[in-house]
Amino acid sequence: MADVQVLCINKQPRNDPHEGITHLGGSGWKWTRAEVVRSIEDKSNTFFTRVNGKRANVGVVNGPNGKYVRTYADGVWNDNLLALWECVA
């Protein structure tokens, strides 16, 4: 299992910005949201962000339109993924 830092996201405009995330990426990788969800659920990888020096783990949330990813730190869900840059390639 790898512990992988998410450095960027791609999103499409939607009412709920978390459900609008389509891809997550990092140093040398870019996966679809579904691939990240599957990897978290089958415990093959863990994912995290680091915003302002603080680590936040990426977890899976069940939304009205299906599963999506969101960060949490200190037991609180937050918007750290939305603070990341857009993935370029």
Summarize the structure.
Helices cover 10% and strands 54% of the residues. With 89 residues, it is mainly β.
Main features:
89 residues, mainly beta, 5-stranded mixed sheet, 4-stranded mixed sheet, 1 helix, globular, DUF3892, DUF3892 domain-containing protein
The number of distinct helices, counting runs of at least 4 residues, comes to 1
Q: What would the principal axes of the Cα set say about the shape?
A: globular
Percent range for β-strand residues: over 45%
Tell me roughly what share of residues is in helical segments: 10-25%
Number of domains: 1
* Span of the ends, CA to CA: 25 Å
Q: Give the averaged pLDDT, no decimals.
A: 88
Helix-strand string: EEEEHEEEEE
Protein name: DUF3892 domain-containing protein
Pfam families: DUF3892
InterPro entries: DUF3892
Organism: Amaricoccus macauensis
